[in-house]
Model the fold of this input.
Amino acid sequence: MTNAIDASLRALLLDGLPPRVKGMAEAIVTEWESAVGAVPELARLAAEDVQALAALPAAEREDALRRRWTRLHEVPAPAVDLAGRGQRRSATGRTVAAR
Done:
């Protein structure tokens, strides 16, 4: 992040990571930069987050970045329309097909 994360901190974040995970980390930092651009108060929180990640050993940092990448890019299950079948509400309040 141009204002919150300097080049040395970015280098610490990327140190020891395989190339693919470095790309993931760069993409995550880019998303943080966009968020900070939209909401400047996030700069401190984003910098603290990157500092905490950078402080982790490379293997733990890689695992953490891979988990974040997966969460950020999960595709929600498509909605299914069960037209023509009776529907009821489950205990959780979700609509489900009646049997």
The chain is about 60% helix and 5% strand. The radius of gyration is 20 Å.
